[in-house]
Amino acid sequence: MNLSKVTTFPTEHVENCTKGCGRSRLGLKHLCLMAKLISGIQQVGIGIPDVHKAWKWYRNAFGIDIRMFEEAAEAALMTRYTGGEVHARHAALALHMGGGAGMEIWQFTSRESADQHKFSLLKNGLLVTKIKCRDAKMGHESLADQKLGAVCKDPSGKNCFSVIDPFGNPFIASETEHWYQKKQSIFGGIEGVMIGVADMDKSLEFYKDVLEIDEVIYDKTGVFEDLASLTDGDKEFRRVRLQPSNRNSGAFSDVFGMFHIELLQPINADSKPHNLEGRFWGDQGYIHLCFDVNEMGSIKTRAEKLNSPFTVDSGDTFSMGEAAGRFAYLEDPDGSLIELVETDKITVSKKLNWFLTLSKKRKKKPLPRWLFSVMALNRVKD
User: By Cβ atoms counted within 10 A, which residue in 42, 273, 296, 305 is the most buried?
Assistant: First the structure.
């Protein structure tokens, strides 16, 4: 979609728009995009000291076992976030056929990965990943030998519990009715994330206007039981959960499913340093939030207009093992890293040497379910 062809609305539309966009930027031309460009969260990037050990844990704990790609290569375009030097890494992207986003499990191979900073909910940045769960009590029992919080209610009234993986990364498993395959696994993929912010209003402006995650599900302030088991979870916070009012029906929109982000701002407590401070992109801990998108050029134009330019851009296409596409990065107001990926090629079955190139037309509607059933052949078993 060419932004120059987007309808321009008068100022009164900014205040009275009924499409949930809530835009009020600068009182200027209002871009009410009828076709959304983000299909869903594609993955959350996690820096790990041992990619094979970590992925085995995520397979056994959550069932995230479908290999989308795995490769060893140099991250030549990421020097802005790796100390000005090109570093090598081993990475794997894995999905869950229950739906939801995947995990990009990432390990430096050219340097020793720095230890993760001490976790705190008072920090800014990507703090917690939300995992889909069919039954919180059953999920809690299945992970009884892990570091768990008690089963309780989140602010939306859903049963949930927290779990810390062996590498110090916090997750919240939360019950959901959104599933891609009906197979009765306890857990699914990633449904959302929690992001610490210093200024809620600035952050809401960024996520609503730049990324079009514009519908407020709740906006609550208080002390919350679902955070109680996490470091500094006994403090008072303002929590705003957002989801898109309208999602693009892209190739992967069905399998990634509906998603949310939750912005977290401490009240009456100073924010601690950003969780990326003193770390390279790729060091241990959460490193980025990645969205699956269409029409990267249009997103780049809009981001520049809204003073949130790309900081990294691979250009027309980039190889990611057996997959290919274009990727870019931008930063939210606190410097949290947001990755955008427009996929051009995927592996349907490596065993069958079957790869699928996505034309512009094919990118705009969900891929058939039988194709993902074939992709289940890429499952990694222990």
Answer: 42
Number of domains present in the structure of the chain: 1
| pTM confidence score | 0.89
Are 193 and 289 within 8 A, CB to CB?
yes
**pLDDT higher than threshold 70 for residue 63:** yes
Tell me, yes or no, whether 33 lies in a domain.
no
Q: What does 120-135 look like in DSSP terms, one character per residue?
A: -TTB-EEEEEEEEES-
Q: Name, in order, each residue with C-beta under 8 angstroms of 222's C-beta and a sequence gap of 6 or more.
A: 236, 237
The token pair at 366 is 């969900």
Query: In 3D, which of 10, 28, 31, 114 has the Cα closest to residue 301?
Result: 31
pLDDT band at 318 (very low <50, low <70, confident <90, very high): confident
Contacts of 296 (CB under 8 A, 6+ apart): 326, 328, 340, 342
Task: Let me know if residue 15 belongs to a domain.
Answer: no
CATH of the domain at 262: 3.10.180.10
